[in-house]
Amino acid sequence: MSIIILLPLLGFLVSGIVGKYLPKQVVGLISTAAVVLSFAFALHMFLEKSILGEAVSQKWFTFLQVGGLQIDVAFTFDRLSGWMTLIITGIGSLIHLYSMGYMKEDEGYYKFFAYLNLFVFNMLLLVLGSNFIMLFFGWEGVGLCSYLLIGFWYKNLNYGKAARKAFVMNRIGDLGLLLGLFLIFKEFKSFDYTIVFDQIAAGNTPAHVLTAIALLLFVGAMGKSAQIPLYTWLPDAMAGPTPVSALIHAATMVTAGVYLVVRSQALYFQTALASDVIMWVGLATSLMAALIGLKQNDIKKVLAYSTVSQLGLMFVALGCGAYTAAMFHLTTHAFFKALLFLGSGSVIHGMHHEQDIRKMGGLKSKMPITYFTFLIGTLAITGFPFLSGFFSKDEILLHAFSHSPLVWGLSLISASITGFYMFRMFFVTFHGKYRNTHYPLEKVHESPITMTLPLLILAVLSVLGGLLNLPHYFGHNVAGAFSSYLAPMYKFAEHSPEVSASTEWLLLAAAVSVFIIAFVAMRMKYISKNSVPEEDDSMSGLGKVLANKFYVDEIYDAGVVAPIEIAGTVTDGLVDDIAIKGITDSIGKSPNWISSLLSRVQNGNIEYYLIYMVIAVSILLAINLF
Amino acid sequence: MIFQNLDISHYIYLSTVLFSIGLFGVLFRRNAIVLLMCIELMLNAVNLLFTALSTYMGDADGQIFVFFIMVVAAAEAAVGLAILVMVYRNTRKTDVSFLDQLKG
Questions:
Q1: Does ipTM top 0.95?
Q2: Neighbours of A48 (CB within 10 A)
Q3: Is the pTM higher than 0.90?
Q4: CA of B100 vs chain A CAs: smallest distance (Å)
């Protein structure tokens, strides 16, 4: 297991330290190989152990021992962390491969791969660590890598600002996580998962403490997984190179919050209040992000809001107690969202860094592989029957329905909006007439094999991902494989949704019909009528509000940033400049003043020196005599 | 005899006056040669005091000390005049108030 974790670290060290002096292909190959090998070992371990239900634990060394507290650098490869490891290294491998093509022209090539490897390493620490401190290490580490990679093109000031925003937003969440960890330690005197969760499951802990811990941990998850109110960093994070958006801001890092909640199932299962909070926050996020996504014109921004929306849906599942459904959706989402992001990257690459979908159109003929795989990704996310997103989304909707029909209804609305914005983007980008006047259509080209191969693999996964956890109507032999795989990981057995067969079919029909409505509506609007999303200036009413993202950034600026800045100016002027600077500076300057006074005495003229001498001797004599 | 009528206090007054003349000469004259002469005057005022008190106390130590002072004064005068000659050669001046280039 050490190998799985250490390979990406090794890759990071090699490409980070000597990568500058190596040819680009070599750096790319080393980094990619590190992750691919890591995936191979993880897969081997998964097939050898996890499938059989064995967990492998390994302790490297004791990190810290203070009083009764012992923190080990220890790892556990069990069914949950093993699964996450597969996703991280698997998708990570594909994205590394893709990056070799995408970043080919970039001067920071070696740096990019070093960061990517470091990210994979930290992500593995996060999921494989067997105590909360290891998780926290990884948590901070991926935050750092996210920051570095968002601001990868640091010469653009706005990108740097986006990176900073992501970092600061995450710090807010991290503070919550940290407080949660402190509370855990106060209550259980340990950070080890086994000890903590055993004690929680034993049920001797006061309910309000559990609720507090659960909510604080969720604040951490809010930051990392971009939930209201801390989601605004994720769309801005699209400033980073597209493979980064795919790996970090769609497939892996942002799911850390989901992983945290699933890992802490024993905790959340017992705290209804926290679960409700998670559910409603997730629902609100999902709806809001989906609505904003409707009016975005940057291809990556649409996908970013879609990611926020889908993450919201996962949290709805977690809030309903459907931990497996959330993990399932996490998995399929990792497949199709990585696919969509990489596809958008391929488009951006082919269009020479054009991201505005209004300037695209008709790319279907020029980029056949990208078009085809993007279509699959779009169908998967919008819930085309029997693709992966269809199954995972329906499982969540089913649980939501058995929880409360209202939640189901709202989730369904959010899911249907997904269809609207995805098809809108898809049709506007790939169909219709080519609309970019600055970049001729002839120059638009399909991407190289290193970029299309990952697309094809991910497309296959997006199609077949649903097979992991087929609903029961496919027969009990094949259905629910993922559920039974994850079931031993839970301290408390999951509720299975209690709905009659006929209701279930109705729910399915509803889901399929909203898909069809979205498809048809968007097809009519953007293909039959050939309309193009309007220019920024000509928007009005609700559309303008949506295009401006509900003005959340402006509200945050006015409500949070501006007061802090004012307070900062005041303290800077009053406290710092006048009080602190005034006092310390005058202390510092006083020897200067005194010496400049005294240095006038030393004017070099011997007559004065003699006078001083005489005066001094006189004084000494006077002292002696009287 | 006039020496019998002289009290020790007269010697003290005389040497104090001589010393003060020398001191004020050092302080307020600018000509380096005059300065050196004034220093010589101060030293001799001290010598006078030494010998007078030596006689008064009946102790020869003071007179021995005077010889030492004379030696030092001679050396000082030689060195001082040598410096002065060099200064004059370089600046064509013997005014000490212009010699302020050694300040830090």
A1: no
A2: 11
A3: no
A4: 4
